[in-house]
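Internal ticket - ligand job 196, magnesium ion:
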Amino acid sequence: NWYHGASYLISAAELSQLPEDTGFEVAFAGRSNAGKSSAINTICNQKSLCRTSKTPGRTQLINQFELDDTHRLTDLPGYGYAKVPEAMKRRWQKTLGEYLETRKCLQGVVLMMDIRHPMSSHDLQMLEWARACNMPVHCLLTKADKLKRGPAKSTLLQVLKELKKMSPLFTAQMFSSSKRDGLPEAWQKLNEWYQV
Ligand code: GTP
Ligand code: MG
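stdout (structure tokens):
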């Protein structure tokens, strides 16, 4: 599996520190604590490629990992964490917005949402932005192990229905890092975006 070979590339505080804007990039975004870092670790089958933590807001830099010379994966800082100082929030917001709007090699955004509270106002902002610039978004409803099958399924159907109304480029699936559920579907979407 190609994704298992991912390796750490850079932690950037500013966009200017990122590698040249060529090749293919996929960004992982979502609220703080949604399980972004865990999902990347699971997808890449590595225990600590990304730092995970019980303290929300831990990932404050743009962390990049490379699959090969032309394919990269980006772990974006989580948004919406209330306890982060206002000035810092604004700085992240600006960097995040700039990355998403200017990065030409960006093929799509994997949007992670805790299945117990999907489609928060911040998620909707992200989706609205993506819709406006025709950016594909694949939603991972994370921590699916926290719900029983029935409620998990109906949440997925509800989210799919809402996404469909917004853009034909939006898709969603269930995902659980602790159960390692949803991996083939996630890999398939990434393959499509990375054109491999
Ligand atoms: P920030 O980087 O702080 O924005 O958070 P993050 O979105 O990267 O979340 P992270 O992967 O660090 O996970 C946050 C918490 O959720 C940790 O305590 C994880 O162990 C837990 N978690 C992540 N994925 C799962 C999952 O699939 N199931 C369960 N039960 N817990 C999970
Ligand atoms: Mg993280």
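Auto-summary: The chain is about 35% helix and 25% strand. The chain has a mean pLDDT of 91.
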